[in-house]
Amino acid sequence: MSQRRRVARAAFSATAATACLALATPAWASSTIGLKSAHHGKKAGYFTQQCDDERFANLPDDHDGWHFVLPGKNSGSFETLTLTFSDGTNDVTVNIPDGSDAYPDFFYSTGGKDPRQIHAYLFTPAGWKLVDGSATISGTGDDFNVSHTCKGTVPKPTPTPTPSVSESPEPSESPSASESPEPSESPSASESPSTSESPTPSDSASPTTSPSGGTGGGGDLPLTGVAVTGMALTGVALIGGGVALMTLRRRRDRITFTG
């Protein structure tokens, strides 16, 4: 009887151990899941904004805050995350956890009797786009997703280097030299024909006609000229008359003497 009891106890212990191993196996096994497909290629501004999350308290203004969550009761906990972002030029791979890079990250666990590490936080430069991601978990699940974000402000100093290069052409662009044609274009010299065209000299002939009108003070000169001419003609007439009288007298004298 004692041997049967021992055999029964051994069989029961083996069965119990097998059952325990079967139940514990999912907790020990790790699996890899991907990021929810609807969250691929999205920036922080696409998701629900929850900047009042106390775990975003140390988020710099020029960074985006990301909160990833692992749904499902059988999914276990986050072990690692591998995320790919685009900075607008290149793809950047960020691992959680990783204390050696420039992107702060940390896990956050649930409370209770059976805490699970299902929250992951990450800070990236503002404006980065989430391209893809994967996670290693302690249980099984379909995917993980972005719960909410806090959009940062893209720093303005980044475009300042470009103006410094574009400002250098200013001396070469100095349009002051090219615009200098203004003096050459000075139509004042070319348009000066207005003085040559000015018929004012030709119109000045009108004043010549004005003296003929005799309305101005110059009208006295024509009157003086007429008086001198009349006197000259009168003098010539008198001289001619005198000569004629002398000629007639001589003829009379000759006739008288002859007779």
UniProtKB/TrEMBL annotation:
Residues 163-212 have a biased composition (Low complexity). InterPro entries: TAT_signal (IPR006311). Residues 1-29 form the signal peptide. The chain crosses the membrane at residues 226-248. Keywords: Membrane, Signal, Transmembrane, Transmembrane helix. PROSITE patterns: PROKAR_LIPOPROTEIN (PS51257), TAT (PS51318). Residues 148-221 are annotated as: Disordered. NCBIfam families: LPXTG_anchor (TIGR01167). This is LPXTG cell wall anchor domain-containing protein. It comes from Micromonospora carbonacea. The lineage of its organism: Bacteria, Bacillati, Actinomycetota, Actinomycetes, Micromonosporales.
